[in-house]
Design brief:
Blueprint (H helix, E strand, L loop, with lengths): L2 E8 L8 E3 L1 E5 L2 E2 L6 E4 L10 H4 L6 E4 L5 E4 L5 E3 L3 H11 L3 E4 L7 E5 L9 H5 L2 E2 L5 E6 L11 E5 H10 L14 E4 L15 E4 L2 E10 L17 H8 L1 E3 L5 E13 L1 E4 L3 E4 L1
Parallel strand pairs: 13-14
Antiparallel strand pairs: 1-2, 1-14, 1-20, 3-4, 3-19, 5-9, 6-7, 7-8, 10-12, 11-12, 13-18, 15-16, 15-20, 16-18, 17-18
GO molecular function: catalytic activity; molybdenum ion binding; pyridoxal phosphate binding
InterPro entries: MoCF_Sase_C (IPR005302), MOCOS_middle (IPR005303), Pyrv_Knase-like_insert_dom_sf (IPR011037)
Protein name: Molybdenum cofactor biosysynthesis protein
Length: about 280
């Protein structure tokens, strides 16, 4: 056994605050209900707080999914709305300062814009070469996302308590609350030191009946530095990670990483408290 599931997180709307679950169902596309909706505007880009000047206000909104699969969104003023309602689209447009709408249908060739971080290891050199300065004055790259979904890359994202504790020990200033990294699974790896999930890519992970395969360490963007509900902005956080943990990722060079992306081999339930084993 390599650990225990200590937290399950779902984000019904991409780049909004999510919810803790005692249990969930994992299918081929990831955790049921995760990133079921996204906010779109007229630019053709999928709303992502990876471009904070355009989409950062989404992180002040909280989304949750009821038993009837209805997604409710609470805006910064405390008002609650149902995803897909015209009233919510109007309120989101006001929040963002431009026309926007909620959708559960990923556009063809969906893409998102990613602000180029101001720390080393925040983006591959190839992406930096293709970056442009946009109308907000932000240097951005444009990247595709998983076909037919609003996921960035892997179906699931996991982070271990060992990684977070190691970062706290090496950089005691920043706040390494796991919610900043937006994982689906937080895995308690006990007294293991270092960054154990770095060694997982290519290995199979079993959680009960569910079988996953680790794909690649998770390169990080600026999102962990932003305010997440009651968690204040922490601009020092990713500079600390860049200083302490840059590792090779595929052919992209040495990148700042926290966590690991996973794909689903066998669907099944996951529950808080489930043992996690490696095959």
């Amino acid at each position: 056994m390599i650990g225990t599931v200590t937290r399950i997180r779902r984000y019904p709307v991409k780049s909004m605050l999510g919810e803790d679950l005692p249990a969930g169902t994992v299918g081929s596309g990831g955790l049921a209900g995760d990133r079921a909706f996204a906010v779109l505007d007229g630019s053709g880009a999928v709303g992502s707080a990876k471009h904070p000047r355009k989409w950062g206000p989404l992180l002040a909104c909280r989304a949750s999914q009821g038993g009837d699969s209805r997604v409710d969104v609470v805006l910064p003023d405390g008002s609650a709305h149902v995803a897909g309602a015209a009233e919510l689209d109007q309120r989101l447009s006001e929040l963002l300062g431009r026309p926007a709408r909620m959708s559960d249908q990923p556009p063809r060739q969906a893409r998102l814009e990613r602000a180029v971080p101001d720390y080393d290891g925040g983006a591959p050199q190839s992406a930096l070469a293709d970056s442009v300065l946009d109308a907000t004055g932000t240097r951005v790259t444009s990247v595709g996302i998983a076909a037919g979904s609003f996921l960035d890359f892997g179906a699931l994202h996991a982070v271990t308590t060992s990684t977070l504790q190691t970062l706290r020990g090496r950089a005691p200033g920043p706040d390494f609350d796991p919610r900043r990294f937006r994982p689906n699974l937080v895995i308690d790896t006990g007294s293991v030191e270092g960054f154990p999930e770095d060694e997982w890519p290519g290995r199979r992970i079993r959680i009960g009946e569910t079988v996953l395969e680790a794909i690649v360490p998770t390169p990080r963007c600026v999102v962990p530095t932003l305010a997440h509900g009651e968690l204040p902005a922490d601009p020092t956080l990713m500079r600390a990670v860049a200083r302490e943990h840059r590792i090779p990722v595929l052919t992209l060079g040495s990148l700042t990483c926290v966590g690991v992306y996973l794909k689903v081999l066998t669907a099944g339930p996951v529950r808080v408290g489930d043992p996690v084993t490696m095959q």
